[in-house]
Amino acid sequence: MRRAFGVLRVVAAAAIIAAVVGQFAKSLSLVPDPAVFVVNFFSFFTILSNGVAAVVLLVGAAYAFRRASDPPLFDLVRACATTYMATTLVVYNLLLRDISLDQAATLPWSNEILHVWAPLYLVLDWVLAPGRGRVPWNRFWWIAAFPVAWVVYTMIRGAIVGWYPYPFLNPEVSPGVGYDGVAVYVIAIAAFILLVGAGVVGISRAARPSRPAEPEATPEGDRTVTSAAG
To answer: How far is residue 10's CA from residue 144's CA, in Å, rounded to a whole number?
Structure first.
């Protein structure tokens, strides 16, 4: 079963890479300024999260072929990738599906893979694939690190160059709303990411692990009592 998921991970990663490369090539052939386009293209959260997912799937496939279970650090990285892809699925289908983005022509098949099928596979892989251990709750906050860094980068770059990857991040889209409106969207999406991340971690801890769980961080006083009792 574990090797079967290894094969599925390779197939899913190949589909993601094909979708990213296909959309990149299509858009690049139509834009007037290739240099600016390249930076803009790789500033989309969708592209970045799918890139992370493809790498995670390939590494996960290698582990599936060679090991009975995944190492703890990989479990955490995989939890992050699953959270980001699930967020991409929901945010796109709720906020962006009917909005035309300025990255030239969109390839329909690529769009569906990156925003629907790849995220769905990441979630199913997390739930069903054997070999996953329990992610400790004290590592849960690492899930927020990449989205926070991306938002900071996006807003600083947007203020400088006047371009934002998504309309809800552009303070000039809704006159009179500005950064207050952007802040509402950012806070709402951040809360959703944390909620999804909590669900992802919770699933890892509710299911029977393939290896013993890592110990949670223990307060100093508890260690002292345990030592004395021993």
So the answer is: 27
Its sign, for the CA torsion 200, 202, 208, 211, is positive
User: What are the CB-based long-range contacts (under 8 Å, 24+) for 13-17?
Assistant: 13/53, 13/54, 13/55, 13/57, 13/58, 13/61, 15/113, 15/117, 15/118, 16/50, 16/51, 16/53, 16/54, 16/57, 16/113, 16/114, 16/118, 17/54
Give residues with Cβ within 8 angstroms of 112, minimum separation 6: none
In this structure, the number of other CB atoms found within 10 A of the CB of residue 138 comes to: 12
Judge whether 91 and 46 are in contact, CB under 8 Å: no
Q: How confident is the model over 46-71, as pLDDT tens digits?
A: 999 999 999 999 999 999 999 999 99
Regions of the chain short of the pLDDT cut 70: 98-104, 174-177, 207-230
Does this model's pTM top 0.70? Answer: yes
The DSSP result for 96-136, as a single string, is ITTS--SSSSPPHHHHHIIIIIHHHHHHHHHHH-TT--PPP
Spatial distance between the Cα atoms of 106 and 20, rounded to a whole number of angstroms: 11
Q: What DSSP designation does 149 have? A: H
Q: How many CB atoms lie within 10 A of CB 207?
A: 15
DSSP for 15-64, written as a single string: HHHHHHHHHHHHHHTT-S-HHHHHHHHTT-HHHHHHHHHHHHHHHHHHHH
CB 16 within 8 A of CB 46: no
